[in-house]
Amino acid sequence: MRADTRLRPEILIVLGLSLGQSAIYSMVTIVARLTASQPLSQQTATLNASQSARPYLDLTYQLLGIFFSLVPVALALYLLRSPRTSLGLDFRRPWFDVGWGVALAAAIGLPGLGLVWAASYLGINANIVPAALPSVWWAVPVLILSALQNALLEEIVVVGYLVTRLRELGWKLGWVVAASAVLRGSYHLYQGFGAFVGNAVMGVVFALFFIRTKRVLPLVVAHTLLDVVAFVGYALLPRAWFSWL
Fold first, then answer.
1. Mean pLDDT, range 45-64, rounded to an integer
2. CB-based contacts of 77, cutoff 8 Å, min separation 6
3. How many CB atoms sit inside 10 A of residue 106's CB?
């Protein structure tokens, strides 16, 4: 069987079960936001929302959501189990992975704050609430797990898996990077156009890094750090600190 005959349906299935599905819903959501009576800048996009008024039922829903969101990751890794394929998820180069992860988080996070401000000022983004869990003992651990889940899902599927498969199909480097970056931006579109642009730029940087190094673990480290700072910082810091946005 030809590689493209086998791989094209596989890619569609993996994305349809994961972030491709999220991208479609996100595009529908932004249309709904733009056609609502309230301007986009006055709407709110809430991440990590509470699922129940009963704390332990809420915790159960949160953990189940994290677990089942990682199933497409397991599928992607299973499909890439060839001895010739390595995503660099091992721990053979810990200092390289952590060092580059921290550097990438700083390189993406600091300009990202400026983009958030600019998008908010221009009115092209919804107001983003990174965490809306109740004040319970498990809130911070769940937010950290959510950050790790986001990182594993996005970096393994959108970078490691998708880049590997598209290159196996013979796509040119520029198209591979563009596909990964646009997909990353698309499933953040529900937050607004600033989120789309910022995440697409992040997607270009991360895809190029993976193509050059063949290691996805630094990207997981970087993404986890970015989300932990956003989620936990928002949950713990006084709301007045965010008023400038």
1. 97
2. 87, 89, 156
3. 13
